[in-house]
Amino acid sequence: MLAGQARAAALHWVRHHAGPGFRGAFLTGSAADRSLDEVQPAWSDVDVTVLLAGPVAPPKPGKIRHRGALLDVTYLPVSALADPEKVAATHYLAPSFAGPDAILSDPTGLLGGLRAHIAPTFRSPAAVRKRVADVLAAVRTRLAARDEAAPWPQQVLAWLFPASLVAVAVLVAAGERPTVRTRYRRARAVLGEESGLYARMLGLLGCADVDAEVVVGHLDRLAVVFDEAAAVGPTRFPFASDISAQARPVAIDGSRALVAAGDHREAVFWIVATFARCERILGDRPDAPDFSAALAELVGVRGPGDLRARTAATLAFLPELEEATAAIGGF
Known about the structure:
By secondary structure, the chain is α+β, with helices and mostly antiparallel strands. It has two domains: 3-120, Beta Polymerase, domain 2, CATH 3.30.460.10; 125-329, no CATH class. The chain has helices spanning 3-17, 84-88, 110-118, 125-144, 152-173, 183-191, 196-205, 212-230, 248-260, 264-282, 289-299, 304-329, and strands at residues 22-28, 46-52, 62-66, 69-77, 103-105.
């Protein structure tokens, strides 16, 4: 499937299934930047944000297979885009209004207005600085909110995702769109193969020296656990649709593609994230040796004490990262 066909499928879904109160739709993620004649990889979904009237959006429907394309649909209340300056300073929203290609449907003209406001200064040093500050604030806030009374998989996720935003900060500083699964590989491309800063980032994640065979072994075990969790069916876990049969190409095949490309260290983030999500669905099993082994051997985490230490190290790293992003972004 070509990216243009995937985009057409997304637009068709929006037109026929967005529901009452529809106010617009736009793309986020890597699909927003692909040319129409570029191949849409089987392990890459199409992230679609649907704007709805009302103060609160419905729950995220998640992964949907539609006309051959794998869509990942998120609802957003239209009020979230009411302040153009706030949108321009939000690192995960602003890129969708840096150009014309990410807007799928704009019946009210709101999205076009945001584009007119954001696009002309999107790459200016002042605008980049605000978006980088938004990322760094998210790292601090979300790491500080970790709850050691939460189930262990949830504790892992509450550390892993904000800690990985150090890679996103690099992408934002370079004027690039933040992504999820490939954030480390893309940050390496910005910083360079021999970057000491990038080595530090992998060290904070805990996978700087992990061997490719070790990664493959844990990915093989994850594939089995993934299928067990996917068979449970719908749950109230917010990202449960990422652990489903239709999402398997993204979670498993996408990770295999990274490893096959020589990016086994860069695959670790998504492997651990997927493992933790599976364990949340399966119920925080005390007899989950595969998850425990993956944490220990991929990122060197064996208990809450390791998460505390890793959190402290990440926070201590932020001033250095802030200097580096300022140099990258020219602010």
